[in-house]
């Protein structure tokens, strides 16, 4: 029976379904599905009809993954099979799996618009049914970026577009985190959406867009007057802070161009965007900050080690690799951290900062030079770069000092 359903052999299915010896609901030890599951999985409409006509069929029986035949049909997007099953009074269209995933949730996850339209038209369907972790069908559609599905759900009066998961993450949060620009645009146009609602860590949708480097989403959010672009996490890290920590230069440019942004706002331990960029060897970020025209405070000291941004960058060659640090990040930090410190020192040495800013702004090839040439040397020839002598700066420092001081 199972093989006949898989192969689409209708006559064999009919013959076996009428045989009193055959267990039409059988699931083999090494099989996931029953015969009805199999027919629903492959969209065998005639076979599904034949099986439903059997008095022996258990129409809602879960497979070994705890999914009903109806769930499988919705998951696979077989509209005609879903319609047939919905017409059968034995079918429970809300029956979830063990983790609370309902058929509508799975259809939304997979983006099956026609199936979702059928489900939303059925009054038995709960369009806001949550998984055990709190995620709703609308939440998963936003997480996956299914714009047309989201439009359908937003038009349903029973859908709450702000329902969060147990972590506090909202649908808007996930759309911003994953960079779904068109979805974010849809959400911002709905007056029910709270675009600043944070998760339990305090991170807002805008914070996540900045953290993940989604430039277009950041730009879209900045244009919405409801957005607070300085709203920090619980540890006081701002969107600009996390962008500087991650090295998202395109996002940093957008943020520094916005007069609402405070470029010096520190975390609770007094570490600033400049401080974390210097610590992480994010030379291009330090350049962005110092060349921005904004007044950058360089002397703020961290409360956990009493170091300024320059001091923290300069000490990186002596800081050992942490257990959760990649080799690439480690090499950049210990090799380029001192360069960040030197640049900050130069900025501090000039009261008006005009000469340093002017020179930095006229370095259009710095990104290509640094990433394409110097960083390759850091990765493949790190030994020669980190051999620091008390009486002479390392060779890589001389290279970039020459680059900064050269006439454009």
List keywords for this structure.
single chain, 408 residues, mainly alpha, Serine Threonine Protein Phosphatase 5, Tetratricopeptide repeat, 0% strand, disordered C terminus
Description of the structure:
- The protein is mainly alpha-helical and 408 residues long.
- Among the domains are: 1-130 and 140-160, Serine Threonine Protein Phosphatase 5, Tetratricopeptide repeat, CATH 1.25.40; 275-408, no CATH class.
- Helix content is 51%, strand content 0%.
- The chain has 24 helices and no strands.
- It has helices at residues 2-7, 10-17, 35-41, 45-52, 69-76, 79-86, 103-110, 113-120, 137-144, 147-154, 171-177, 181-188, 205-212, 215-222, 239-246, 249-256, 273-279, 283-291, 309-314, 327-349, 354-361, 366-380, 382-385, 395-405.
- Helix 16 (249-256) runs parallel beside helix 18 (283-291).
- The N and C termini lie far apart (77 Å).
Give the averaged pLDDT, no decimals.
87
Order of helices and strands: HHHHHHHHHHHHHHHHHHHHHHHH
CATH topology of the domain at 1-130 and 140-160, which one?
Serine Threonine Protein Phosphatase 5, Tetratricopeptide repeat
Share of helix among residues? 40-55%
**CATH class wording of the domain at 1-130 and 140-160:** Mainly Alpha
Radius of gyration: 29 Å
Query: How many strands, which pairing sense, and closed or not: the largest β-sheet?
Result: none
Enumerate how many helices there are, as a single number. 24
Approximate shape: elongated
By CATH, the architecture of the domain at 1-130 and 140-160 is named: Alpha Horseshoe
Strand tally is 0
Fourth CATH level, the homologous superfamily of the domain at 1-130 and 140-160? Ankyrin repeat-containing domain
Low-confidence stretches: 365-408
Distance between the termini: 77 Å
% residues in beta strands: under 5%
In terms of structural class, how would the helical and strand content be classed? mainly alpha
């Amino acid at each position: 029976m199972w093989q006949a359903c898989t192969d689409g052999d209708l006559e064999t299915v009919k013959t076996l379904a009428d045989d009193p010896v055959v267990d039409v609901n059988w699931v083999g030890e090494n099989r996931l599905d029953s015969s009805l599951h199999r027919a629903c999985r492959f969209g065998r409409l005639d076979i599904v009809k034949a099986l439903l006509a059997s008095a022996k069929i258990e129409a809602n029986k879960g497979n070994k993954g705890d999914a009903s035949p109806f769930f499988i049909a919705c998951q696979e997007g077989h509209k005609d099979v879903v319609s047939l099953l919905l017409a059968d009074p034995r079918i429970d269209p809300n029956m979830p799996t063990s983790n609370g995933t309902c058929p509508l949730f799975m259809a939304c996850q997979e983006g099956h618009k026609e199936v979702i339209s059928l489900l939303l038209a059925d009054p038995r369907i709960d369009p806001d049914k949550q998984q055990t972790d709190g995620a709703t069908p609308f939440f998963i559609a936003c997480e996956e970026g299914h714009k047309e599905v989201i439009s359908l759900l937003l038009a349903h009066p029973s859908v709450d577009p702000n329902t969060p998961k147990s972590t506090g993450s909202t649908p808007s949060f996930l759309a911003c985190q994953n960079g779904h620009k068109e979805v974010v645009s849809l959400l911002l146009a709905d007056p029910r959406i709270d675009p600043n609602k944070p998760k339990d860590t305090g991170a807002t949708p805008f914070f996540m867009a900045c953290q993940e480097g989604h430039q277009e989403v950041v730009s879209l959010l900045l244009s919405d007057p409801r957005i607070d672009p300085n709203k920090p996490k619980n540890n006081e890290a701002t969107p600009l802070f996390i962008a500087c920590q991650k090295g998202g230069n395109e996002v940093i440019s957008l943020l520094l161009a916005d007069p609402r942004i405070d470029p010096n706002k520190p975390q609770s331990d007094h570490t600033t965007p400049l401080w974390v960029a210097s610590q992480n060897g994010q030379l291009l970020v330090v350049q962005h900050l110092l060349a921005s025209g904004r007044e950058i405070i360089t002397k703020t000291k961290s409360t956990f080690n009493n170091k300024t941004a320059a001091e923290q960058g300069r000490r990186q060659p002596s800081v050992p690799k942490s257990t959760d640090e990649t080799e690439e990040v480690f090499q950049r930090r210990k090799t380029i951290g001192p360069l960040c410190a030197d640049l900050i020192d130069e900025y501090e040495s000039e009261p008006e900062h005009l000469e340093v800013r002017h020179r930095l702004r006229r370095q259009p090839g710095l990104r290509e030079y640094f990433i394409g040439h110097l960083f390759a040397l850091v990765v493949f020839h790190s030994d020669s770069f980190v051999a620091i002598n008390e009486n002479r700066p390392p060779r890589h420092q001389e290279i970039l000092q020459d680059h900064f001081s050269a006439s454009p």
